[in-house]
């Protein structure tokens, strides 16, 4: 006798002990494959002296990865049934991101976004089927929200497909259409939930974002380690690479420490705060992954493989590091600061890291020292007794 599929209705926002599932963790790991591809192509572009073009392509690819991940995570927080049908559709989304990852090199090198768009549309339409299932199982306002999501996502995917019909040499038109479609994607949740919010779970959402941050930082360490290993093996330049490796580790360790210094789920009380916080993670995730790419560029410059100056190579590390600190401060750290001294610690550290750009071969190491000092200062300030405020 066949067991019927569970009804897909909203889960409670006050559910106890809500945690990420093994499927969600597998989902994250597969998505990092695409992040690694984007980071590798960014390294190549910056090292060859095409930083602006590379950053633009990186931002476009990372948006596709990030937005598909965000939409899955928030849907899962509200409607995860973890039944066979739900799992199969999620695996289809994973297949889509792997297709996207396969198209990243051609998108960067030849400006051909066909495979990237195909992978992205596969992910988005798979999620649309989940929203249609939720609509089928619900009634009233909840059903209307699910249908709005399904219709909105589908319409925007038609726009992405139509974009592929534009001539490849019409860069201005392609850029304009891309921006319009990005804005359309970002507007779908606001329109769908204009009179009723989905029942996402604050602790679950904060854990999901935290876990993806950890995975991206782990990928950063892995990519930088491979770059140092290859350079030591090929160029016997351990003395030149040790300061970069040490500084890079200090930056990544500090980034982890700073991100998890506050209980952000206490801040995520409503959709307004949550949407801004969730959207802002595009910069957190993107800068975290870019730190690893920057360390690789710095390594290549140190052994003479990159066609850029030491200042440009240093900026490839210091700019995303500073952006990470500023964005983490703006999104959630500042909501838990007690006074001006605590509020200024991260912005001042970000400016100091930017100043390290001009420290030559020691830029990454000094930036790492600044990041570590920011952690130490933050800990000291937060441990002051309440009477000292």
Automatic annotation (TrEMBL):
Residue spans crossing the bilayer: 55-76, 88-108, 114-134, 146-166, 172-188, 209-229, 241-262, 274-299, 311-332, 344-377
Record carries keyword Transmembrane: yes
Organism: Streptomyces gelaticus
Coiled coil spans: none
Domain of life: Bacteria
Keywords, in A-Z order: Membrane, Transmembrane, Transmembrane helix
Protein name listed in UniProt: Membrane protein
């Amino acid at each position: 006798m066949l067991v019927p599929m569970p009804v897909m209705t909203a889960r409670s926002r006050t559910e106890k002990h809500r945690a990420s599932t093994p499927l969600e963790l597998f989902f994250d790991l597969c998505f990092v494959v695409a992040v690694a591809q984007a980071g590798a192509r960014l390294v190549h572009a910056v090292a060859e002296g095409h930083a602006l073009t590379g950053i633009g392509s990186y931002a476009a690819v990372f948006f596709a990865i990030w937005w598909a991940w965000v939409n899955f995570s928030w849907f899962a927080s509200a409607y995860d049934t973890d039944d066979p049908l739900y799992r199969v559709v999620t695996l289809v989304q994973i297949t889509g991101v792997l297709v996207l990852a396969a198209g990243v090199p051609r998108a960067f090198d030849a400006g051909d976004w066909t495979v990237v768009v195909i992978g992205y549309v596969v992910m988005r339409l798979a999620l649309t089927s989940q929203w249609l299932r939720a609509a089928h199982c619900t009634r009233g306002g909840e059903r209307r929200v699910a249908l709005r999501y399904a219709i909105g996502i589908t319409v925007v995917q038609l726009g992405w497909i139509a974009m592929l019909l534009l001539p490849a040499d019409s860069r201005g038109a392609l850029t304009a259409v891309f921006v319009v479609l990005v804005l359309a994607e970002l507007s779908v949740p606001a329109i769908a939930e204009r009179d009723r919010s989905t029942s996402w779970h604050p602790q679950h959402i904060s854990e999901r974002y935290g876990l993806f941050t950890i995975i991206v930082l782990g990928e950063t360490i892995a990519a930088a380690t491979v770059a140092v290993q290859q350079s030591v093996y090929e160029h016997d330049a351990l003395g030149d690479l040790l300061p970069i490796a040490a500084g890079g580790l200090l930056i990544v360790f500090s980034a982890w420490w700073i991100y998890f210094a506050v209980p952000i789920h206490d801040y995520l009380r409503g959709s307004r705060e949550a949407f801004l916080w969730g959207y802002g993670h595009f910069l957190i995730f993107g800068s975290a992954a870019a730190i690893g790419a920057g360390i690789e560029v710095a390594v290549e410059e140190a052994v003479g493989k990159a066609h850029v100056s030491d200042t440009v190579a240093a900026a490839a590390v210091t700019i995303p590091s500073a952006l990470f600190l500023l964005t983490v401060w703006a999104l959630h750290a500042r909501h838990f600061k007690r006074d001006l001294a605590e509020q200024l610690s991260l912005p001042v550290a970000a400016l100091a890291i930017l100043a390290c750009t001009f420290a030559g071969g020691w830029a990454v190491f000094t930036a790492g020292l600044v990041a570590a000092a920011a952690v130490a200062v933050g800990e000291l300030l937060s441990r002051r007794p309440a009477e000292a405020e």
